[in-house]
Design brief:
The protein is mostly beta strands.
Length: about 900
Amino acid sequence: MRRSLSSVLLVLSITSSSAAPKGKPAVEPKPGPAARPAVAESLLAGLKARSIGPAVMGGRVSAIALDPKDPATFYVGLGTGGLMKTTNAGASFSAIFEKERVAAIGAVAVAPSDPKVIWAGTGEANDRNSSSWGNGVYRSEDGGETWARVGLESSKAIPRIVVHPSDPRTAWVAVMGDLWTPGPGRGLYKTTDAGKTWSRVLAAPAPYDDRVGCGDVAIDPGNPSVLYAVLYARRRTPWSFAYGPDAADGKDLGGIFKSVDGGTTWTKLERGLPKMTGRIGLDVHRKNPRIVVAVVQSDADGAAGGFNVRSKSGGVFRSEDAGATWKRVSPLDPRPFYFSQIRIDPENDKRVYVLGFLLHVSDDGGTTFREDAFKKLHPDCHALVVDPGKPDRLILGTDGGVYQTFDAGKTWDFQNRFAAGEFYRINVDMSSPYRICGGLQDNLTWAGPSRTYSKEGIANSDWTSLGGGDGFSCVFDPEDPNLVYAESQEADFQRTNLATGEIKGLKPQPNEGQEGYRFNWNSPLIGSAHDRSVLYLAGNRVFKLTGKGEKWAAISPDLSARIPDRILTVGSGAETYGVVYTLAESPVKKGMLWAGTDDGKVWVTEDDGGRWTDLTANLPAAAKGEWISRIEPGHAEAPVAYLAIDGHRSGKFAPLAWRTGDRGATWVSVSGDLPADQPVKVVREDPFNPEVLYAGTEFALYVSLDRGSHWVKLGGLPTVAVDDILVHPRERDLVVATHGRSLYVLDDVRALEELTGEIRAADAHLFTIRPAFGRYLLPGWEDSSGTTRFRGANPSDGAIMTFWAKESSSEPVKIEIKNAQGQTVANLTAAALPGLSRIAWDLKPTKDVLTEYGSEGALFVRAGTYEATLTCGKTKSTQKFEVSIAPGIETR
């Protein structure tokens, strides 16, 4: 029996969220991939995924730009979710940068002389492990409706763009370059012809220009010939982060530079500024441009260490003579690699803002700071705009979305009106409707329904927070629907009781004097596919947990490569290295576990950890030493597994994915024709047809119908990183976790499972129709709650019917539905378009068969077996399906 929305979090009986469906696949696998020739993307366009949110928690904002002539219009750049625009001061937002080739935004700027001209720099420049990259500069001349890429394609990360105050064709672009590997093209660039040509006007001396980039640029608003820019060296590895001289062979090449001729020549500013600088943020006072402020990272007197927000030699510096001399006014410099942003009130030079874990504000020019007005905001602040026409209005971008205040921070509006969550991992249960849980970057773990029975759709209030910091893996308890297990950074593993609110930490810990365990920032946590009482967690070792997570045992040795100089870093844990990053249990064979590490090792055990076999030597050459992003065991055969490699950390952007059919002895590539610049984050095998694979890359969701020979985009998603994918074992929905646009559901993928070459050769075909359920939707407030609230989309009501048409036709496709007595109860029509199309029947008789029933047309048909017959030209195709109706509902 289906349950109401109010009981979605209190279902009485669920099975393991990771349990594999039993029995044979619905479609028997063909002898080989050749049986399924390539299918064009356009033929799958009829399968559209629905965005379900949530938007309740926001996502990382990297840049904000205000329209100088219309303050109600501003733009929000997301770290991995494209660009959002509002024209009503944040009451609602629209996505305006979601079909371009990349999704990461580092900078956005509006031309002061022509606000229709928008410049966007792609590639987030915050030095976080999860920062994504871009492919250059984009420019729009119609307020973001259309975009053209205008150069600097290899820039990877752009932290700032400034546009000439009177010439919208002239701009300066700061290029940081790749976060992970040295490369050319870093520095400050200038164009005077809207991006047709570029000149590099500031760069570090060779050979260090391959690791020192431009970290910021600011312009004198009254004299565009005067510019200030920052050089900054950085390099991240999976096990470390180096900046400043440490990233440039000890050379102190960073600092603040000034040009008085539009960027042709530059002078390094040194009087009063420290040596050994790292990341620096700049701002020039709008009313008195002789006042320049900077937040400067410097280790000249030693590093501050850890999360200390006060620097020994860096901090806030102020110049009142256009940079000729500087004075250190405060040691405040919170976590420079992640923040390093400073803003000065355009009217009051004494009001200075420094962005950090909190928003720090000074009323005395930067000497002292307070945070009392800003403690209710999501931490980790990355972007701030002060409205020059009303300086008490601030727009702030954080790891948790966008905030706006009109009273200088006394009150804030959290503008959670678009889905921008950065999900890492997801899981589902077997309730009705089923629940989804998932962990997000710096936004906890959340659980919510896959659909609701309200006309409002899926609201933010339908989601329940399970706590944690950065959320990652989660598992629903298969025996108690109130228990959810979730993992936060470094395996801060906890159990949440939704009925009592109790949260209990369960992280395995060694005894005093023993070697400590290492856990990745994102540690794998899975429920057993065969034993409902078992969970598995992995760090440098694999742990088996029982007793609701309270009992544990290490069932593996250290599975990492144990490279000594790569497992010694300190800090937040994001650089913890030499650990199992992906862990999976075979749905076919109990006790068979696959493990892959961040340092390139792959292992398998077939006796629940009694003996582990190292498969690393058998890996393809391109996989050796690389970060093992995901392992996916086969759902039909125990010897089968898939391997996804994300090589961007070592400068490999090609898609890397392989399949083994012999327990890891040999591997065959399944990357097929995936785009050359899209690293693979996850590969999943369809549980009901092993020929069908799904892949999530840094920029898209793909499907292969021939076991990896050919791939096409699927679901109509915006350009966004896809971090996780699963197929619900009962509903056969494809649930997709994006890192930047929250969650999507592609309802009922049976058509993909059944789309054989024979069906594609036919003129038309009606695919299996999943059981349909009838009930009335609650009215909600869909017509009276305005347009500012985010609503996730529900699936179409009733029976969803998917059909194939080989060719388009002027004659519509007809579907006749009969009951068990052979009586026609509904006639449907749909356009005959090439490929897959969908139509939904609401489980009510259509008007053409209702003449004798009058007002009874509003009633559902009775529960039972129905038959649908599709007619397309001379071709007919028939499917039977079951209809159930909620108890107590009057039927026809």
